[in-house]
Amino acid sequence: xxxxxxRRVRVTSPRTGATRAQRVPxxxxxxxxxxxxxxxxxxxxxxxxxxxxxxxxxxxxxVGGIPLVFWLFxxxxxxxxxxxxxxxxxxxxxxxxxxxxxxxxxxxAAERNERNFTDVLERS
Length: 124
Description:
Elements: H1 26-31, H2 35-72, E1 80-81, E2 84-85, H3 86-123
Antiparallel strand pairs: 1-2
């Protein structure tokens, strides 16, 4: 009484020879330097330029603002901290942690811009 299992049947579409619409990845648009690829690249460059200008502005305002503060308030020039004049202390030591912080934030934001750009390319 051993019955053999039913025979498997393969079901296929009658349109197996029909061509499918090829989806062109956005990265290929960039490589081919098409108008769409140019739009993608210009958006990335614009966001990176905006970020760089923001970081540069922060550095110029902070570092350039230190001498301006001492020029506007000359009494601060006489203040000493640990026998070091305050202007020297700020320009010699306080500026570097600020520059490091701006650099660190800039790199994180630039990488985030690139990740977002990659996500947009993968979705397109």
